């Protein structure tokens, strides 16, 4: 297993950031059959069984920043930079003021 971490600053109130993230999670769950849940201000995301076995993601929200962490199977390690870039772009778009 290897990990990708992306820290993204934002200026949104925590409640607004959480609402935006939750709406995105709902859309992603419908499109990709993901399973997600909140644990305090951490969104945990799991792929459906059999897909990307072992992968999981967390998005930790706090005032002023969001930290995305994705655990990917070792066989996908060559995609780390691409995944980090896409995460950064998605967070920028999602948490823009």
Q: What is the compact description of this entry?
A:
With 97 residues, the protein is of the alpha+beta class. It has helices at residues 14-32, 80-94, and strands at 2-9, 35-39, 42-46, 56-62, 65-72.
Your description of this structure?
It is built from two helices and five strands; from the N terminus they run βαββββα. It is of the alpha+beta class. The chain has one domain (2-94): TATA-Binding Protein, CATH 3.30.310. The protein has a five-stranded antiparallel sheet, covered by helices on one side. Strand 2 and strand 3 form a beta hairpin.
Essential attributes:
35% helix, TATA-Binding Protein, 97 residues, alpha+beta, 5-stranded antiparallel β-sheet, 5 strands
